[in-house]
Each structure stands twice: as structure tokens, then as C-alpha cells.
Design goal:
The complex is a heterodimer of chains A (261) and B (296).
Chain A (H helix, E strand, L loop, with lengths): L4 E5 L6 H13 L4 E4 L13 H7 L3 E2 L3 H8 L11 H16 L3 H8 L4 E6 L2 E6 L17 H11 L3 E4 L6 E4 L5 E4 L14 E8 L3 E8 L3 H10 L4 H9 L11 H6 L3
Parallel strand pairs in A: 1-2, 2-3, 5-6, 6-8
Antiparallel strand pairs in A: 1-9, 4-5, 7-8, 9-10
Chain B lengths: L16 E2 L6 E5 L28 H13 L4 E5 L9 H9 L4 E5 L6 H13 L4 E6 L5 H8 L3 H14 L5 E5 L10 H11 L6 E5 L34 E5 L2 E3 L11 E3 L10 E2 L3 H9 L7
Parallel strand pairs in B: 2-3, 2-8, 3-4, 4-5, 5-6, 6-7
Antiparallel strand pairs in B: 1-11, 8-9, 9-10
The chains are: A alpha/beta (261), B alpha/beta (296).
Chain lengths: 261, 296
């Protein structure tokens, strides 16, 4: 039987409580399968806690840049930041995550595929972390041209391109009838001043419909755990307030204007 | 002044080349080398007198924009010279923003309140981001103006303040040509200065000084060899993802625009997507420093 409704999530960032709430919500809304587009660790506390949840719920995962780096024990997270302030916080996050991820989980991260193809009704979905050509390419809504998205879909024989990496949701119906979707992140709020996080439901009705779903979870527990683990106050404030406090310099000016900082 | 005429080329047979990975960025050297400043480190020796590269005709820019769209370009950049000296710049920005996110590299001296209003209106009506990069070279007027000319600092920071007030926070771009007076990183000093000047959310990009234009030294000993590129990921070089439209044709990278050795074609972009020769001392800078001309 072909799939009619799937949930896509990205950027778990060790936020196991947000992941748990998201998976429950997706099940409640009738998702027949759940896919994670990578970056399981980083930013949040206790990285090992997300792995049992993903396995228990049968979530199909692909690699994000973080997963590649953690699996290899690479020098940095490979997030693609160029600003020294962004890299300062990225280093703290990465070193904490590598230090606290078990060997078994690191090995599992290394075994994940870099992309996935899913058929939803008659729609061919391509799932990747950054872009089809680069795992850490930032596909922001205001810096990703329609012509480029059409090219990606054409070259990968896809009807819908689904990505994450930036952590902010957007959807564009392309002139050709194809779609491009950034599924958002469940590990960090959407820089909108609320602590909720976002995932995406795709349905074949039979046309492709895209729904961004907000999820409320016990963010205060996660924030307190982050404090106990000695993670930066900027990370904790982001979880509590929903406004990004760090790694902001990669944002284009329009996305930057939507946040408080 | 003919820029870059003094450097020594390697023998053709020994010049390493970089294959274009994909066309991500297209630059337009829209005013050629016409500028209202004469910065002492300018890598293409721009200035107000006798520009050695001519401005681009607006119709030509539009033809290349249409072609870039079809090729799946990711970003458009306008540079010079000083782009705001081009009479049709705002119309060209509107056309570029219909294709892709667009950035203007400027010294900021021509952005008064009226121009800031027009830019903010353009940005608001576009689905894609319009980025303004303003060049300064130090965190104080005295140090900056010694490089860029009397009064340039106050005018540049004034422009930054006007744009920030319209939520069009500029990316302040600087080189370390002016040196440091207190040993603190230039990035930190610029950050502090911008906040004090009322430019919130400071966005800063630091660039190396390039051995070109008024800083050319002709150093043939510093040309890249094939051996230097062994094991090096040459896709990190701007010429692996970028082409530049300037007077005379299409070139391999923004800093070499106008130099015959860097010209890859005289017609459409499609005819200039072949390998780029790393035949200039400036290529060493990108290789050694990881310089990227883009915003990030």
C-alpha cells in the first residue's frame, strides 16, 4: 500500500522531549511513516536520549552534517558558519555532543544514508539535509531562487524536495508544479518568540499538501537540564523564549529581521 | 592606470586550472572601475579619474541575468568601482531580485536618507533578500580615512545607521590594511564601534588585503603550482562556483575581473564555464586564507 501521509522532521539537536512530543503528535494526526532529515545532536543536553526514541518509533533517518562529523570525530560540526561568533558557539555545542555521544550511537550515525527517496501517492519526494548537492547548504526561504529549486528537482527526478539545516520552515510551489519544502527543526524553536517547535506533514490528497505543525513540549525541563550540563546561557534562553540568541550571522537579512536579535 | 599589467604570468603549461563545480554566484562589475573614492589598497585601482574598466550597459546586465536564471544561479552581486554611481542601479537591482537574492558592495558614501528609503522599499517588495555590504577599513575615522579618504568613515557609518534603522542591516566589510592600534581583533573593534554608532545587530566580514591594484607587488614567486594544490579541495576557491561579468567579457573571479588572463569568454555565461587558470598572485590569497568573496 502506498503512503498517503508522512511526517518529516529535522534538527533534533538532542532535544528528546521535543522529539517525543512530535512523534506522539504525528501519530495522532495519522502519519503513516516518520522521517528525520538529520542533525540528531548539537545544542541540547544528553545526546544519547534521542536514539532509543527514534528506534522505538521506527523513524527513518538520514545524515545531517552534525551526524557525519560526530560519527567521524571530525574537527568541527561542519555547520558551514563563517562568522567567529557563530563558530564560538558551534564549537562549544559540538565538543559537548561528541563527548557525550556513545560509541555505539556514533557508529549508528555513520551508517545512515545521506538522502532518501519516498513515494507519497504519486509524488516522488527527495529527502536531504542541506541540499541535494551539499549536506550543509543553507536553503533559506529568501536566498533560495526558484530557478535553483527547479534545477534541483529536475536533476534528481523529484516532485518535491524536502530539506532542513536552517531550522526554519517554508514551502514554495514551483512553476513546474513541483514543490520545495524546508521541514523545520524540532530541537530548537522557530525564532518566533514562542518555545514551540515545528515539524511538517505531507499528504497526497491526491495533490501534495504541506502542513507545518507547531508542537508544545516541556521546554522548561530541557532548559533546566541544559543549565545543569553547563551549556551556554544563550542556548538556554533560546529554548525558553523562542528567540535565537546565537549562530545568527548566517541568517540573510530578511530572516534576521523576523527575530529579536 | 592599467591595473595588473605588472605581474608575471607563469608559463602556460605549468598553470593549474580549477573546474567550475556549479555556477552559484554571478557578479556584475557594474560601474567598471569608476569610484568616488581612491582607497590606497583598492585591488582594482578604482577611482574617479580615467577608469580602466568601463561601466556595464543595463541591457547587457539584463541579458546575463536572464541567462543566470536559466542556469540555476544562487546569488547575484553588484560591485565596481562604486555601484551607486550607475544611473540605472536601482532598476537593475529590481531585475536581479526577481531572479535571486542580490547583494551590493558599496562604500556607502552615496546612501543618503532618500536612497536608504528606496533600498528599503526594494527590499520590502522582493521575496529574496537584498543585502548591502558597506566597506570600511578601521573602527575609527582617523585610521579608516587614512586608507579610504577624508570623511569616508562618517559617510559610511551614516549609511550603515540609515539602513539599520530601516531593518536593512548592512554587512560591514573590512580589511586589516589599517593595522591595529590596541592589539584587539578588528572584528571585535568594529562590532563595538557599530553598536556605539547605533548600528544594531552588527554584521561583519573581514577580508585579507589582496596583492593587486594599488597593492600589487608583481611577486611571481608566489604563484600557485600544481604541487601546491595536491590534496587541496579546490572547490573552496571562488572560481569553482563564480563568474563575473565586467567590461570585456566574463571573468573567473571578482578580484581578477578585467584582467585578460582571467577572461574566460566574451559572450554568454555558457561560453565561460570552462576551467579557470590560477595564474595570478592573488590566487595564492584565496588558496592560503580561504577567502570567499560571497557574504558568508
Amino acid at each position: 500500500m502506498s503512503l498517503r501521509r508522512v511526517a518529516l522532521l529535522g534538527g533534533v539537536y538532542s532535544n528528546w522531549l521535543a522529539l517525543e512530543a512530535t512523534l506522539a503528535d504525528a501519530r495522532r494526526r495519522g502519519a503513516e511513516a516518520v522521517y528525520c532529515l538529520g542533525d540528531l545532536g548539537g545544542f541540547g543536553p544528553h545526546p544519547n536520549r534521542v536514539f532509543p526514541l527514534l528506534r522505538e518509533h521506527g523513524v527513518a533517518c538520514i545524515q545531517g552534517n552534525y551526524d557525519v562529523s560526530v560519527a567521524r570525530g571530525a574537527e568541527d560540526c561542519g555547520c558551514g558558519y563563517s562568522d567567529p561568533r557563530d563558530n564560538y558557539f558551534a564549537r562549544i555545542s559540538y565538543e559537548y555532543t561528541v563527548r557525550n555521544t556513545s560509541t555505539e550511537n556514533r557508529r549508528w550515525l555513520g551508517s545512515l544514508p545521506p538522502l532518501a527517496r519516498v513515494t507519497l501517492g504519486e509524488h516522488r519526494l527527495l529527502l536531504c539535509h542541506g541540499s541535494p548537492r551539499q549536506i550543509n547548504e543553507f536553503l533559506w526561504e529568501t536566498t533560495t531562487p526558484t530557478g535553483l529549486l527547479e534545477k534541483f528537482c529536475r536533476e534528481t527526478a523529484s516532485d518535491a524536495l524536502c530539506v532542513t539545516h536552517t531550522g526554519l520552515t517554508w514551502h514554495r510551489a514551483l512553476p513546474s508544479g513541483r514543490h520545495a519544502v524546508n521541514v523545520g527543526a524540532v530541537g530548537r524553536p522557530g525564532n518566533d518568540g514562542t518555545p514551540r517547535v515545528w515539524y511538517t506533514l505531507l499528504s497526497a490528497t491526491p495533490d501534495l499538501t504541506v502542513e507545518f505543525v507547531p508542537v508544545h513540549y516541556d521546554h522548561e525541563s530541557v532548559a533546566r537540564d541544559m543549565e545543569r550540563e553547563g551549556l551556554p546561557a544563550e542556548f538556554v534562553e533560546t529554548i525558553r523564549t523562542g528567540w535565537w540568541r546565537c549562530c545568527l550571522e548566517s541568517l540573510p537579512v530578511k530572516e534576521r529581521a523576523r527575530g529579536r536579535y | 592606470m592599467r591595473c595588473g599589467a605588472c605581474f608575471t604570468l607563469m608559463e602556460e603549461a605549468t598553470v593549474p586550472h580549477v573546474t567550475l563545480r556549479e555556477l552559484r554566484a554571478v557578479w556584475f562589475q557594474v560601474t567598471g572601475t569608476l569610484c568616488n573614492l581612491s582607497c590606497r589598497h583598492c585591488f582594482n585601482a578604482s577611482g574617479p579619474k580615467e577608469p580602466w574598466l568601463a561601466a556595464l550597459d543595463a541591457g547587457l546586465v539584463r541579458r546575463y541575468l536572464a541567462e543566470a536564471d536559466g542556469l540555476g544561479v544562487r546569488e547575484i552581486y553588484f560591485t565596481g568601482g562604486e555601484p551607486f554611481l550607475h544611473r540605472e542601479l536601482l532598476a537593475l537591482l529590481r531585475d536581479a531580485l526577481a531572479v535571486a537574492p542580490t547583494t551590493v558592495l558599496t562604500n556607502g558614501t552615496l546612501i543618503d536618507d532618500a536612497m536608504a528609503d528606496r533600498l528599503a522599499a526594494l527590499a520590502a517588495e522582493s521575496a529574496y533578500s537584498l543585502e548591502i555590504r558597506i566597506s570600511v577599513d578601521a573602527a575609527t575615522a582617523a585610521d579608516n580615512d587614512a586608507v579610504r579618504g577624508q570623511g569616508s568613515f562618517a559617510r559610511a557609518i551614516g549609511a550603515a545607521r540609515r539602513l539599520a534603522a530601516r531593518e536593512l542591516w548592512p554587512i560591514v566589510t573590512a580589511t586589516e590594511i589599517a593595522g591595529t592600534s590596541d592589539g584587539r581583533p578588528l572584528y571585535d573593534r568594529l562590532h563595538e564601534m557599530l553598536l556605539e554608532a547605533g548600528v544594531g545587530r552588527p554584521r561583519i566580514k573581514i577580508l585579507p588585503v589582496l596583492p593587486l591594484g594599488r597593492c600589487a607587488d608583481g611577486g611571481a614567486s608566489r604563484l600557485l603550482s600544481a604541487a601546491a594544490l595536491e590534496g587541496f579541495d579546490d572547490t573552496r576557491l571562488p572560481c569553482a562556483t563564480t563568474r563575473v561579468v565586467a567590461d570585456g567579457g566574463v571573468y573567473a573571479c571578482p578580484i581578477l575581473a578585467g584582467l585578460p588572463s582571467a577572461r574566460l569568454g566574451e559572450g554568454p555565461l555558457a561560453g565561460a564555464l570552462g576551467p579557470a587558470p590560477l595564474s595570478h598572485p592573488a590566487c595564492v590569497t584565496c588558496w592560503a586564507t580561504g577567502l570567499t568573496c560571497g557574504n558568508t
